[in-house]
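hey team, just a heads up i'm posting the complex here instead of the shared drive bc the drive is being weird again. everything in one block, sequence lines first with there labels, then the predicted structure for the whole assembly after. its two chains so it's a bit long, scroll down
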Amino acid sequence: MAAWAERLSGVRGVLLDISGVLYDSGTGGGAAIAGSVEAVARLKRSPLKVRFCTNESQKSRRELVGVLQRLGFDISEGEVTAPAPATCQILKERGLRPHLLIHEGVRSEFDDIDMSNPNCVVIADAGEGFSYQNMNRAFQVLMELENPVLISLGKGLIVARGYSRLQVEAWINGSVGQDGEKSDCSLLAVRELPHTEPRYYKETSGLMLDVGGYMKALEYACGIEAEVVGKPSPEFFRSALQAIGVEAHQAIMIGDDIVGDVGGAQQCGMRALQVRTGKFRPGDEHHPEVRADGYVDNLAEAVDLLLQHMDK
Amino acid sequence: MAAWAERLSGVRGVLLDISGVLYDSGTGGGAAIAGSVEAVARLKRSPLKVRFCTNESQKSRRELVGVLQRLGFDISEGEVTAPAPATCQILKERGLRPHLLIHEGVRSEFDDIDMSNPNCVVIADAGEGFSYQNMNRAFQVLMELENPVLISLGKGLIVARGYSRLQVEAWINGSVGQDGEKSDCSLLAVRELPHTEPRYYKETSGLMLDVGGYMKALEYACGIEAEVVGKPSPEFFRSALQAIGVEAHQAIMIGDDIVGDVGGAQQCGMRALQVRTGKFRPGDEHHPEVRADGYVDNLAEAVDLLLQHMDK
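-- predicted structure starts here --
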Protein backbone atom coordinates (compact mmCIF):
# COMPACT_ATOMS: atom_id res chain seq x y z
CA MET A 1 0.00 0.00 0.00
CA ALA A 2 1.24 3.51 -0.82
CA ALA A 3 2.67 5.68 1.95
CA TRP A 4 0.20 7.64 4.06
CA ALA A 5 1.49 10.91 2.57
CA GLU A 6 0.35 9.80 -0.85
CA ARG A 7 -2.94 8.32 0.31
CA LEU A 8 -3.90 11.44 2.23
CA SER A 9 -2.61 14.11 -0.16
CA GLY A 10 -4.99 16.88 -1.11
CA VAL A 11 -7.55 16.16 1.62
CA ARG A 12 -9.48 19.30 2.51
CA GLY A 13 -12.55 17.92 4.23
CA VAL A 14 -13.38 15.08 6.64
CA LEU A 15 -16.69 13.29 7.17
CA LEU A 16 -16.96 11.58 10.57
CA ASP A 17 -19.33 8.77 11.40
CA ILE A 18 -20.64 9.13 14.96
CA SER A 19 -21.67 5.81 16.51
CA GLY A 20 -18.64 3.53 16.84
CA VAL A 21 -16.20 6.34 15.93
CA LEU A 22 -16.92 9.13 18.40
CA TYR A 23 -18.72 7.06 20.99
CA ASP A 24 -20.15 3.63 21.71
CA SER A 25 -23.84 3.87 22.39
CA GLY A 26 -25.06 1.48 25.04
CA THR A 27 -26.28 1.43 28.61
CA GLY A 28 -26.47 4.75 30.36
CA GLY A 29 -26.14 7.06 27.38
CA GLY A 30 -22.96 5.57 25.96
CA ALA A 31 -19.26 6.25 26.42
CA ALA A 32 -16.74 8.28 24.40
CA ILE A 33 -14.18 6.16 22.57
CA ALA A 34 -10.74 6.81 24.06
CA GLY A 35 -9.03 9.79 22.39
CA SER A 36 -12.03 10.76 20.25
CA VAL A 37 -13.04 13.89 22.19
CA GLU A 38 -9.55 15.34 21.76
CA ALA A 39 -9.30 14.14 18.15
CA VAL A 40 -12.48 16.01 17.17
CA ALA A 41 -11.22 19.13 18.95
CA ARG A 42 -7.87 18.99 17.11
CA LEU A 43 -9.59 18.43 13.78
CA LYS A 44 -11.82 21.45 14.31
CA ARG A 45 -8.84 23.65 15.18
CA SER A 46 -7.10 22.56 11.94
CA PRO A 47 -7.70 24.02 8.47
CA LEU A 48 -9.66 20.88 7.52
CA LYS A 49 -13.41 21.14 7.08
CA VAL A 50 -15.36 18.75 9.32
CA ARG A 51 -18.85 17.29 8.99
CA PHE A 52 -20.56 14.58 11.03
CA CYS A 53 -22.40 12.01 8.92
CA THR A 54 -24.64 9.51 10.70
CA ASN A 55 -27.49 7.09 9.99
CA GLU A 56 -29.02 7.69 13.44
CA SER A 57 -32.78 7.63 12.96
CA GLN A 58 -34.27 7.04 16.40
CA LYS A 59 -32.88 10.26 17.92
CA SER A 60 -33.27 13.85 16.76
CA ARG A 61 -30.05 15.75 16.07
CA ARG A 62 -30.79 17.78 19.20
CA GLU A 63 -30.89 14.67 21.38
CA LEU A 64 -27.87 13.09 19.71
CA VAL A 65 -25.79 16.25 19.99
CA GLY A 66 -26.88 16.59 23.64
CA VAL A 67 -25.55 13.10 24.39
CA LEU A 68 -22.26 13.87 22.65
CA GLN A 69 -21.83 17.26 24.31
CA ARG A 70 -22.32 15.66 27.73
CA LEU A 71 -19.50 13.28 26.79
CA GLY A 72 -17.29 16.32 26.08
CA PHE A 73 -17.51 16.57 22.29
CA ASP A 74 -17.39 19.92 20.48
CA ILE A 75 -20.35 19.40 18.18
CA SER A 76 -23.49 21.32 17.27
CA GLU A 77 -26.72 20.39 15.49
CA GLY A 78 -25.81 22.39 12.40
CA GLU A 79 -22.74 20.21 11.80
CA VAL A 80 -24.64 16.93 11.55
CA THR A 81 -25.91 15.26 8.38
CA ALA A 82 -28.57 12.71 9.37
CA PRO A 83 -31.37 10.90 7.50
CA ALA A 84 -34.30 12.73 9.13
CA PRO A 85 -33.23 16.32 8.30
CA ALA A 86 -32.01 15.17 4.87
CA THR A 87 -35.48 13.71 4.31
CA CYS A 88 -37.10 16.98 5.40
CA GLN A 89 -35.10 18.81 2.76
CA ILE A 90 -36.25 16.33 0.10
CA LEU A 91 -39.87 16.68 1.25
CA LYS A 92 -39.71 20.46 0.98
CA GLU A 93 -37.95 20.47 -2.40
CA ARG A 94 -40.51 18.10 -3.90
CA GLY A 95 -43.63 19.41 -2.19
CA LEU A 96 -44.17 16.10 -0.40
CA ARG A 97 -46.40 15.86 2.68
CA PRO A 98 -45.47 12.73 4.60
CA HIS A 99 -47.36 10.17 6.58
CA LEU A 100 -44.75 9.17 9.19
CA LEU A 101 -44.03 5.64 10.39
CA ILE A 102 -41.06 6.50 12.61
CA HIS A 103 -39.73 6.32 16.17
CA GLU A 104 -41.05 8.94 18.57
CA GLY A 105 -37.47 9.96 19.37
CA VAL A 106 -36.97 11.46 15.91
CA ARG A 107 -40.42 12.96 15.40
CA SER A 108 -39.38 16.49 16.42
CA GLU A 109 -37.19 16.70 13.29
CA PHE A 110 -40.44 16.86 11.30
CA ASP A 111 -42.00 19.64 13.39
CA ASP A 112 -42.09 22.19 10.58
CA ILE A 113 -43.21 19.77 7.87
CA ASP A 114 -46.74 19.97 6.47
CA MET A 115 -48.37 16.60 7.12
CA SER A 116 -51.91 17.40 6.01
CA ASN A 117 -53.39 15.24 3.27
CA PRO A 118 -50.26 13.06 2.90
CA ASN A 119 -48.85 12.29 -0.54
CA CYS A 120 -45.97 10.06 0.54
CA VAL A 121 -44.87 7.75 3.36
CA VAL A 122 -41.66 8.13 5.37
CA ILE A 123 -40.55 4.98 7.18
CA ALA A 124 -37.72 4.64 9.71
CA ASP A 125 -36.75 2.20 12.44
CA ALA A 126 -39.95 2.59 14.45
CA GLY A 127 -39.23 -0.29 16.85
CA GLU A 128 -42.44 -1.16 18.69
CA GLY A 129 -44.16 1.31 16.39
CA PHE A 130 -44.13 -1.38 13.69
CA SER A 131 -47.56 -2.63 14.74
CA TYR A 132 -49.96 -4.25 12.27
CA GLN A 133 -52.19 -1.21 12.58
CA ASN A 134 -49.39 1.26 11.83
CA MET A 135 -48.10 -0.81 8.93
CA ASN A 136 -51.60 -0.98 7.49
CA ARG A 137 -52.09 2.74 7.81
CA ALA A 138 -48.84 3.37 5.89
CA PHE A 139 -49.91 0.77 3.32
CA GLN A 140 -53.33 2.34 2.89
CA VAL A 141 -51.86 5.81 2.43
CA LEU A 142 -49.60 4.45 -0.32
CA MET A 143 -52.47 2.57 -1.97
CA GLU A 144 -54.55 5.72 -2.13
CA LEU A 145 -51.85 7.61 -4.07
CA GLU A 146 -51.70 7.72 -7.82
CA ASN A 147 -47.90 7.89 -7.70
CA PRO A 148 -46.96 6.33 -4.37
CA VAL A 149 -43.67 7.59 -2.90
CA LEU A 150 -41.99 5.66 -0.08
CA ILE A 151 -38.91 7.15 1.59
CA SER A 152 -36.92 4.94 3.96
CA LEU A 153 -34.42 6.31 6.50
CA GLY A 154 -31.71 3.73 5.90
CA LYS A 155 -32.38 0.12 4.97
CA GLY A 156 -30.70 -1.73 7.83
CA LEU A 157 -31.70 -5.32 8.44
CA ILE A 158 -30.97 -5.84 12.08
CA VAL A 159 -30.58 -3.81 15.20
CA ALA A 160 -28.78 -5.30 18.19
CA ARG A 161 -30.28 -3.79 21.32
CA GLY A 162 -28.65 -4.07 24.68
CA TYR A 163 -25.86 -6.25 23.36
CA SER A 164 -22.19 -5.46 23.01
CA ARG A 165 -20.54 -5.92 19.64
CA LEU A 166 -18.74 -9.00 20.94
CA GLN A 167 -21.95 -10.60 22.18
CA VAL A 168 -23.61 -10.04 18.84
CA GLU A 169 -20.62 -11.43 16.99
CA ALA A 170 -20.56 -14.48 19.20
CA TRP A 171 -24.24 -15.01 18.66
CA ILE A 172 -24.12 -14.68 14.92
CA ASN A 173 -20.88 -16.59 14.48
CA GLY A 174 -21.91 -19.30 16.90
CA SER A 175 -25.46 -19.86 15.78
CA VAL A 176 -25.52 -18.85 12.18
CA GLY A 177 -21.83 -18.89 11.40
CA GLN A 178 -21.80 -22.10 9.35
CA ASP A 179 -23.22 -20.01 6.51
CA GLY A 180 -20.49 -17.47 5.89
CA GLU A 181 -22.54 -15.33 3.58
CA LYS A 182 -25.45 -14.87 5.91
CA SER A 183 -23.19 -14.07 8.88
CA ASP A 184 -21.62 -11.32 6.86
CA CYS A 185 -24.89 -10.01 5.57
CA SER A 186 -26.27 -9.86 9.09
CA LEU A 187 -23.34 -8.28 10.81
CA LEU A 188 -22.88 -5.59 8.22
CA ALA A 189 -26.22 -4.21 9.12
CA VAL A 190 -25.94 -4.48 12.87
CA ARG A 191 -26.22 -1.21 14.69
CA GLU A 192 -25.78 -1.03 18.41
CA LEU A 193 -28.50 1.01 19.99
CA PRO A 194 -28.76 2.09 23.58
CA HIS A 195 -31.48 0.74 25.76
CA THR A 196 -32.56 3.06 28.48
CA GLU A 197 -35.55 1.30 29.97
CA PRO A 198 -34.72 -1.99 31.67
CA ARG A 199 -38.27 -3.31 31.15
CA TYR A 200 -38.06 -2.64 27.46
CA TYR A 201 -34.62 -4.18 27.36
CA LYS A 202 -35.76 -7.37 29.00
CA GLU A 203 -38.68 -7.76 26.68
CA THR A 204 -36.98 -6.99 23.43
CA SER A 205 -33.26 -7.46 23.73
CA GLY A 206 -31.41 -9.44 21.13
CA LEU A 207 -31.31 -9.17 17.38
CA MET A 208 -34.30 -7.11 16.25
CA LEU A 209 -35.73 -6.29 12.86
CA ASP A 210 -34.63 -2.88 11.61
CA VAL A 211 -36.44 -0.76 9.02
CA GLY A 212 -35.17 -2.78 6.02
CA GLY A 213 -37.58 -5.70 6.33
CA TYR A 214 -40.59 -3.44 6.81
CA MET A 215 -39.52 -1.33 3.86
CA LYS A 216 -39.44 -4.54 1.79
CA ALA A 217 -42.92 -5.52 3.00
CA LEU A 218 -44.40 -2.22 1.81
CA GLU A 219 -42.44 -2.36 -1.46
CA TYR A 220 -43.82 -5.84 -2.13
CA ALA A 221 -47.40 -5.13 -1.12
CA CYS A 222 -47.60 -1.90 -3.15
CA GLY A 223 -45.43 -2.95 -6.08
CA ILE A 224 -43.09 0.03 -5.64
CA GLU A 225 -39.44 0.75 -4.82
CA ALA A 226 -38.45 2.86 -1.82
CA GLU A 227 -36.02 5.78 -1.96
CA VAL A 228 -33.38 5.23 0.72
CA VAL A 229 -32.03 8.27 2.56
CA GLY A 230 -28.83 7.59 4.52
CA LYS A 231 -25.46 5.94 4.04
CA PRO A 232 -24.45 4.31 1.70
CA SER A 233 -26.67 6.33 -0.65
CA PRO A 234 -24.46 8.61 -2.82
CA GLU A 235 -26.96 11.50 -2.52
CA PHE A 236 -26.57 11.37 1.24
CA PHE A 237 -22.77 11.63 1.14
CA ARG A 238 -23.05 14.39 -1.45
CA SER A 239 -25.37 16.43 0.77
CA ALA A 240 -22.81 16.15 3.59
CA LEU A 241 -20.02 17.33 1.27
CA GLN A 242 -22.16 20.16 -0.07
CA ALA A 243 -22.69 21.43 3.47
CA ILE A 244 -18.93 22.03 3.84
CA GLY A 245 -18.24 23.02 0.22
CA VAL A 246 -15.74 20.24 -0.42
CA GLU A 247 -15.46 18.12 -3.59
CA ALA A 248 -15.56 14.33 -3.26
CA HIS A 249 -11.96 13.88 -4.43
CA GLN A 250 -10.81 16.27 -1.69
CA ALA A 251 -12.72 14.51 1.07
CA ILE A 252 -12.19 11.51 3.31
CA MET A 253 -14.74 9.53 5.31
CA ILE A 254 -13.83 8.00 8.67
CA GLY A 255 -16.16 5.23 9.78
CA ASP A 256 -16.45 1.84 11.46
CA ASP A 257 -18.70 0.22 8.84
CA ILE A 258 -16.76 -1.29 5.96
CA VAL A 259 -19.75 -1.30 3.60
CA GLY A 260 -21.97 1.60 4.70
CA ASP A 261 -19.18 4.07 5.48
CA VAL A 262 -16.10 2.98 3.55
CA GLY A 263 -17.68 1.37 0.48
CA GLY A 264 -20.37 4.02 0.20
CA ALA A 265 -17.93 6.93 0.41
CA GLN A 266 -15.56 5.36 -2.12
CA GLN A 267 -18.39 4.81 -4.61
CA CYS A 268 -19.00 8.51 -4.29
CA GLY A 269 -15.42 9.35 -5.29
CA MET A 270 -14.16 9.99 -1.76
CA ARG A 271 -11.39 8.27 0.13
CA ALA A 272 -12.25 6.38 3.33
CA LEU A 273 -10.52 5.09 6.45
CA GLN A 274 -11.91 2.37 8.68
CA VAL A 275 -11.36 2.61 12.43
CA ARG A 276 -10.91 -0.55 14.51
CA THR A 277 -13.62 0.56 16.95
CA GLY A 278 -17.42 0.27 16.99
CA LYS A 279 -18.69 -2.48 14.72
CA PHE A 280 -15.25 -3.11 13.13
CA ARG A 281 -14.33 -6.79 12.86
CA PRO A 282 -10.88 -8.17 11.95
CA GLY A 283 -12.42 -9.81 8.88
CA ASP A 284 -13.25 -6.35 7.52
CA GLU A 285 -9.60 -5.87 6.52
CA HIS A 286 -10.02 -8.74 4.05
CA HIS A 287 -13.51 -7.89 2.86
CA PRO A 288 -14.23 -9.50 -0.54
CA GLU A 289 -15.55 -6.29 -2.09
CA VAL A 290 -14.44 -3.25 -0.16
CA ARG A 291 -10.88 -2.16 0.60
CA ALA A 292 -10.42 0.96 2.73
CA ASP A 293 -7.74 3.51 1.85
CA GLY A 294 -6.38 2.78 5.29
CA TYR A 295 -7.15 1.02 8.57
CA VAL A 296 -6.42 2.81 11.85
CA ASP A 297 -6.88 1.82 15.48
CA ASN A 298 -9.25 4.67 16.26
CA LEU A 299 -10.22 8.22 15.40
CA ALA A 300 -7.24 9.62 17.32
CA GLU A 301 -4.82 7.77 15.03
CA ALA A 302 -6.74 8.86 11.95
CA VAL A 303 -6.54 12.51 13.00
CA ASP A 304 -2.82 12.18 13.81
CA LEU A 305 -2.19 10.94 10.28
CA LEU A 306 -4.44 13.51 8.65
CA LEU A 307 -2.84 16.46 10.43
CA GLN A 308 0.65 15.10 9.83
CA HIS A 309 0.15 14.66 6.08
CA MET A 310 -2.15 17.58 5.45
CA ASP A 311 -1.08 19.96 2.66
CA LYS A 312 0.49 22.88 4.50
CA MET B 1 -63.23 -22.08 -28.56
CA ALA B 2 -63.93 -25.81 -28.87
CA ALA B 3 -67.32 -27.17 -27.90
CA TRP B 4 -67.91 -27.94 -24.23
CA ALA B 5 -68.05 -31.65 -24.97
CA GLU B 6 -64.48 -31.54 -26.18
CA ARG B 7 -63.23 -29.26 -23.44
CA LEU B 8 -64.72 -31.40 -20.69
CA SER B 9 -64.06 -34.85 -22.09
CA GLY B 10 -62.43 -37.38 -19.82
CA VAL B 11 -62.95 -35.41 -16.61
CA ARG B 12 -63.09 -37.75 -13.60
CA GLY B 13 -62.41 -35.41 -10.71
CA VAL B 14 -63.35 -31.86 -9.72
CA LEU B 15 -61.52 -29.48 -7.37
CA LEU B 16 -63.75 -26.75 -5.93
CA ASP B 17 -62.53 -23.48 -4.52
CA ILE B 18 -64.66 -22.45 -1.53
CA SER B 19 -64.72 -18.67 -0.96
CA GLY B 20 -66.34 -16.93 -3.91
CA VAL B 21 -67.52 -20.22 -5.45
CA LEU B 22 -69.56 -21.92 -2.71
CA TYR B 23 -70.20 -18.84 -0.60
CA ASP B 24 -69.32 -15.20 -0.18
CA SER B 25 -67.76 -14.58 3.19
CA GLY B 26 -68.71 -11.28 4.77
CA THR B 27 -70.84 -9.90 7.53
CA GLY B 28 -72.69 -12.41 9.67
CA GLY B 29 -70.92 -15.60 8.59
CA GLY B 30 -71.40 -15.16 4.86
CA ALA B 31 -74.03 -16.26 2.36
CA ALA B 32 -74.28 -19.19 -0.03
CA ILE B 33 -73.94 -18.22 -3.70
CA ALA B 34 -77.24 -18.90 -5.48
CA GLY B 35 -77.43 -22.49 -6.74
CA SER B 36 -74.16 -23.61 -5.15
CA VAL B 37 -75.66 -25.73 -2.36
CA GLU B 38 -77.62 -27.79 -4.91
CA ALA B 39 -74.70 -27.88 -7.33
CA VAL B 40 -72.40 -29.43 -4.72
CA ALA B 41 -75.09 -31.98 -3.82
CA ARG B 42 -75.58 -32.98 -7.47
CA LEU B 43 -71.83 -33.27 -8.00
CA LYS B 44 -71.48 -35.54 -4.99
CA ARG B 45 -74.30 -37.78 -6.22
CA SER B 46 -72.55 -38.09 -9.62
CA PRO B 47 -69.71 -40.50 -10.47
CA LEU B 48 -67.26 -37.58 -10.39
CA LYS B 49 -64.77 -37.35 -7.54
CA VAL B 50 -64.98 -34.09 -5.60
CA ARG B 51 -62.41 -32.28 -3.42
CA PHE B 52 -62.56 -28.82 -1.88
CA CYS B 53 -59.35 -26.81 -2.33
CA THR B 54 -59.03 -23.54 -0.39
CA ASN B 55 -56.38 -21.07 0.74
CA GLU B 56 -58.34 -20.26 3.92
CA SER B 57 -55.76 -19.74 6.64
CA GLN B 58 -57.53 -17.84 9.41
CA LYS B 59 -60.10 -20.56 10.12
CA SER B 60 -59.58 -24.22 10.96
CA ARG B 61 -61.25 -26.74 8.65
CA ARG B 62 -63.64 -27.50 11.49
CA GLU B 63 -64.76 -23.90 11.69
CA LEU B 64 -64.93 -23.44 7.93
CA VAL B 65 -66.93 -26.62 7.43
CA GLY B 66 -69.23 -25.56 10.28
CA VAL B 67 -69.99 -22.29 8.50
CA LEU B 68 -70.66 -24.11 5.23
CA GLN B 69 -72.83 -26.78 6.81
CA ARG B 70 -74.96 -24.10 8.45
CA LEU B 71 -75.44 -22.64 4.98
CA GLY B 72 -76.70 -26.05 3.80
CA PHE B 73 -73.63 -27.51 2.10
CA ASP B 74 -72.85 -31.22 2.15
CA ILE B 75 -69.21 -31.02 3.15
CA SER B 76 -66.98 -32.60 5.79
CA GLU B 77 -63.54 -31.79 7.17
CA GLY B 78 -61.94 -34.78 5.48
CA GLU B 79 -62.90 -33.47 2.05
CA VAL B 80 -61.01 -30.17 2.38
CA THR B 81 -57.46 -29.44 1.24
CA ALA B 82 -56.25 -26.32 3.06
CA PRO B 83 -52.83 -24.78 3.76
CA ALA B 84 -52.72 -25.48 7.50
CA PRO B 85 -53.31 -29.26 7.37
CA ALA B 86 -51.09 -29.49 4.27
CA THR B 87 -48.39 -27.75 6.28
CA CYS B 88 -48.86 -30.16 9.19
CA GLN B 89 -48.24 -33.06 6.81
CA ILE B 90 -45.02 -31.41 5.57
CA LEU B 91 -43.89 -30.76 9.16
CA LYS B 92 -44.41 -34.41 10.10
CA GLU B 93 -42.75 -35.77 6.97
CA ARG B 94 -39.65 -33.65 7.48
CA GLY B 95 -39.40 -33.79 11.27
CA LEU B 96 -39.97 -30.04 11.55
CA ARG B 97 -41.09 -28.44 14.83
CA PRO B 98 -42.64 -25.06 14.07
CA HIS B 99 -42.66 -21.72 15.77
CA LEU B 100 -46.09 -20.40 14.72
CA LEU B 101 -46.85 -16.85 13.64
CA ILE B 102 -50.50 -17.42 12.70
CA HIS B 103 -54.06 -16.33 13.41
CA GLU B 104 -55.65 -17.78 16.53
CA GLY B 105 -58.53 -19.08 14.42
CA VAL B 106 -56.34 -21.68 12.72
CA ARG B 107 -54.18 -22.67 15.69
CA SER B 108 -56.20 -25.79 16.50
CA GLU B 109 -55.03 -27.35 13.22
CA PHE B 110 -51.58 -27.62 14.82
CA ASP B 111 -52.81 -29.28 18.03
CA ASP B 112 -50.97 -32.56 17.49
CA ILE B 113 -47.75 -30.97 16.22
CA ASP B 114 -44.61 -31.02 18.37
CA MET B 115 -43.60 -27.40 18.92
CA SER B 116 -40.81 -27.89 21.43
CA ASN B 117 -37.39 -26.50 20.50
CA PRO B 118 -38.55 -25.12 17.12
CA ASN B 119 -36.49 -25.75 13.99
CA CYS B 120 -38.65 -23.81 11.55
CA VAL B 121 -41.13 -20.93 11.38
CA VAL B 122 -44.66 -21.17 9.97
CA ILE B 123 -46.21 -17.84 9.00
CA ALA B 124 -49.82 -17.17 7.95
CA ASP B 125 -52.14 -14.18 7.80
CA ALA B 126 -51.93 -13.38 11.51
CA GLY B 127 -53.77 -10.04 11.27
CA GLU B 128 -53.21 -8.10 14.48
CA GLY B 129 -50.80 -10.87 15.47
CA PHE B 130 -48.23 -9.22 13.19
CA SER B 131 -46.86 -7.12 16.06
CA TYR B 132 -43.22 -6.01 16.18
CA GLN B 133 -42.68 -8.38 19.09
CA ASN B 134 -44.13 -11.40 17.26
CA MET B 135 -42.24 -10.60 14.07
CA ASN B 136 -39.02 -10.33 16.06
CA ARG B 137 -39.61 -13.60 17.81
CA ALA B 138 -40.09 -15.35 14.45
CA PHE B 139 -37.01 -13.57 13.14
CA GLN B 140 -34.93 -14.60 16.16
CA VAL B 141 -36.00 -18.25 15.85
CA LEU B 142 -34.91 -18.23 12.19
CA MET B 143 -31.60 -16.53 13.01
CA GLU B 144 -30.78 -19.16 15.61
CA LEU B 145 -31.14 -21.99 13.07
CA GLU B 146 -28.26 -23.33 11.07
CA ASN B 147 -30.60 -24.08 8.15
CA PRO B 148 -33.54 -21.73 8.61
CA VAL B 149 -36.84 -22.99 7.15
CA LEU B 150 -39.73 -20.56 6.65
CA ILE B 151 -43.09 -21.95 5.53
CA SER B 152 -45.75 -19.45 4.45
CA LEU B 153 -49.47 -20.31 4.21
CA GLY B 154 -50.13 -18.56 0.92
CA LYS B 155 -48.38 -15.39 -0.18
CA GLY B 156 -51.31 -13.02 -0.63
CA LEU B 157 -50.60 -9.31 -0.66
CA ILE B 158 -53.83 -7.79 0.45
CA VAL B 159 -56.91 -8.74 2.40
CA ALA B 160 -60.08 -6.69 2.04
CA ARG B 161 -61.91 -6.84 5.34
CA GLY B 162 -65.48 -5.74 5.72
CA TYR B 163 -65.70 -4.61 2.11
CA SER B 164 -67.69 -6.06 -0.73
CA ARG B 165 -65.91 -6.99 -3.92
CA LEU B 166 -67.46 -4.00 -5.64
CA GLN B 167 -66.31 -1.58 -2.97
CA VAL B 168 -62.78 -2.91 -3.19
CA GLU B 169 -62.83 -2.70 -6.97
CA ALA B 170 -64.08 0.85 -6.86
CA TRP B 171 -61.41 1.76 -4.39
CA ILE B 172 -58.57 0.22 -6.32
CA ASN B 173 -59.77 1.33 -9.73
CA GLY B 174 -60.59 4.82 -8.56
CA SER B 175 -57.52 5.53 -6.51
CA VAL B 176 -54.80 3.44 -7.98
CA GLY B 177 -56.30 2.58 -11.32
CA GLN B 178 -54.18 4.89 -13.46
CA ASP B 179 -51.46 2.30 -13.12
CA GLY B 180 -52.97 -0.77 -14.72
CA GLU B 181 -50.31 -3.13 -13.58
CA LYS B 182 -50.56 -2.31 -9.92
CA SER B 183 -54.35 -2.47 -9.93
CA ASP B 184 -54.14 -5.94 -11.36
CA CYS B 185 -51.47 -7.05 -8.99
CA SER B 186 -53.49 -5.82 -6.05
CA LEU B 187 -56.83 -7.20 -7.01
CA LEU B 188 -55.55 -10.63 -7.85
CA ALA B 189 -54.53 -11.08 -4.28
CA VAL B 190 -57.61 -9.66 -2.66
CA ARG B 191 -59.46 -12.04 -0.44
CA GLU B 192 -62.68 -11.06 1.19
CA LEU B 193 -62.72 -12.00 4.81
CA PRO B 194 -65.58 -11.81 7.24
CA HIS B 195 -65.44 -9.38 10.10
CA THR B 196 -67.39 -10.45 13.10
CA GLU B 197 -66.52 -7.81 15.67
CA PRO B 198 -67.80 -4.36 14.81
CA ARG B 199 -65.09 -2.69 16.91
CA TYR B 200 -62.40 -4.51 15.02
CA TYR B 201 -64.10 -3.68 11.76
CA LYS B 202 -64.26 0.01 12.49
CA GLU B 203 -60.63 0.15 13.49
CA THR B 204 -59.13 -1.90 10.74
CA SER B 205 -61.44 -2.12 7.80
CA GLY B 206 -60.18 -1.46 4.32
CA LEU B 207 -57.31 -2.95 2.41
CA MET B 208 -55.04 -4.70 4.85
CA LEU B 209 -51.63 -6.32 4.51
CA ASP B 210 -51.84 -10.08 4.07
CA VAL B 211 -49.09 -12.58 4.85
CA GLY B 212 -47.09 -11.86 1.67
CA GLY B 213 -45.44 -8.64 2.81
CA TYR B 214 -44.47 -10.10 6.17
CA MET B 215 -43.11 -13.20 4.47
CA LYS B 216 -40.95 -10.87 2.32
CA ALA B 217 -39.73 -8.98 5.40
CA LEU B 218 -38.48 -12.20 7.02
CA GLU B 219 -36.99 -13.43 3.73
CA TYR B 220 -35.06 -10.18 3.38
CA ALA B 221 -33.91 -9.92 6.98
CA CYS B 222 -32.74 -13.55 7.13
CA GLY B 223 -31.49 -13.88 3.56
CA ILE B 224 -33.70 -16.92 2.88
CA GLU B 225 -36.60 -17.91 0.63
CA ALA B 226 -39.92 -19.10 2.04
CA GLU B 227 -41.71 -22.27 0.96
CA VAL B 228 -45.29 -21.34 0.06
CA VAL B 229 -48.06 -23.83 0.90
CA GLY B 230 -51.35 -23.07 -0.86
CA LYS B 231 -52.65 -22.23 -4.31
CA PRO B 232 -51.07 -21.64 -6.83
CA SER B 233 -48.26 -23.92 -5.64
CA PRO B 234 -48.25 -27.12 -7.78
CA GLU B 235 -47.53 -29.31 -4.72
CA PHE B 236 -50.72 -28.04 -3.14
CA PHE B 237 -52.91 -28.93 -6.14
CA ARG B 238 -51.16 -32.30 -6.38
CA SER B 239 -51.94 -33.10 -2.75
CA ALA B 240 -55.61 -32.34 -3.43
CA LEU B 241 -55.61 -34.65 -6.47
CA GLN B 242 -53.80 -37.36 -4.56
CA ALA B 243 -56.53 -37.31 -1.92
CA ILE B 244 -59.11 -38.36 -4.52
CA GLY B 245 -56.82 -40.56 -6.63
CA VAL B 246 -57.29 -38.58 -9.83
CA GLU B 247 -54.57 -37.66 -12.35
CA ALA B 248 -54.10 -34.01 -13.30
CA HIS B 249 -55.18 -34.55 -16.93
CA GLN B 250 -58.45 -36.09 -15.67
CA ALA B 251 -59.20 -33.23 -13.28
CA ILE B 252 -60.76 -29.80 -13.50
CA MET B 253 -60.51 -26.90 -11.06
CA ILE B 254 -63.43 -24.51 -10.55
CA GLY B 255 -62.48 -21.20 -9.00
CA ASP B 256 -63.04 -17.45 -8.97
CA ASP B 257 -59.36 -16.43 -9.03
CA ILE B 258 -57.94 -16.27 -12.55
CA VAL B 259 -54.33 -16.55 -11.37
CA GLY B 260 -54.43 -18.52 -8.12
CA ASP B 261 -57.10 -21.02 -9.16
CA VAL B 262 -57.17 -21.13 -12.97
CA GLY B 263 -53.53 -20.38 -13.79
CA GLY B 264 -52.20 -22.52 -10.95
CA ALA B 265 -54.31 -25.55 -11.86
CA GLN B 266 -53.41 -25.29 -15.56
CA GLN B 267 -49.69 -25.12 -14.75
CA CYS B 268 -50.24 -28.38 -12.93
CA GLY B 269 -51.67 -30.05 -16.04
CA MET B 270 -55.33 -29.70 -15.02
CA ARG B 271 -58.13 -27.93 -16.81
CA ALA B 272 -59.82 -25.00 -15.07
CA LEU B 273 -63.10 -23.05 -15.24
CA GLN B 274 -63.57 -19.57 -13.86
CA VAL B 275 -66.91 -18.66 -12.28
CA ARG B 276 -68.26 -15.13 -12.58
CA THR B 277 -68.81 -14.92 -8.81
CA GLY B 278 -66.59 -14.01 -5.84
CA LYS B 279 -63.55 -12.01 -6.88
CA PHE B 280 -64.18 -12.48 -10.63
CA ARG B 281 -63.88 -9.28 -12.67
CA PRO B 282 -64.91 -8.84 -16.32
CA GLY B 283 -61.27 -8.08 -17.19
CA ASP B 284 -60.33 -11.60 -16.13
CA GLU B 285 -61.75 -12.95 -19.40
CA HIS B 286 -59.04 -11.01 -21.24
CA HIS B 287 -56.22 -11.64 -18.79
CA PRO B 288 -52.82 -11.15 -20.47
CA GLU B 289 -51.38 -14.42 -19.22
CA VAL B 290 -54.10 -16.80 -18.16
CA ARG B 291 -56.98 -18.14 -20.26
CA ALA B 292 -59.48 -20.42 -18.54
CA ASP B 293 -60.79 -23.53 -20.33
CA GLY B 294 -64.18 -21.93 -19.88
CA TYR B 295 -66.02 -19.12 -18.15
CA VAL B 296 -69.35 -19.82 -16.45
CA ASP B 297 -71.78 -17.66 -14.53
CA ASN B 298 -71.54 -19.68 -11.35
CA LEU B 299 -70.93 -23.10 -9.89
CA ALA B 300 -74.43 -24.27 -10.84
CA GLU B 301 -73.71 -23.67 -14.53
CA ALA B 302 -70.32 -25.39 -14.24
CA VAL B 303 -71.93 -28.47 -12.71
CA ASP B 304 -74.68 -28.49 -15.36
CA LEU B 305 -72.03 -28.58 -18.06
CA LEU B 306 -69.89 -31.16 -16.31
CA LEU B 307 -72.76 -33.58 -15.72
CA GLN B 308 -74.08 -33.06 -19.24
CA HIS B 309 -70.76 -33.82 -20.93
CA MET B 310 -69.42 -36.37 -18.48
CA ASP B 311 -68.26 -39.67 -20.02
CA LYS B 312 -71.13 -42.02 -19.42
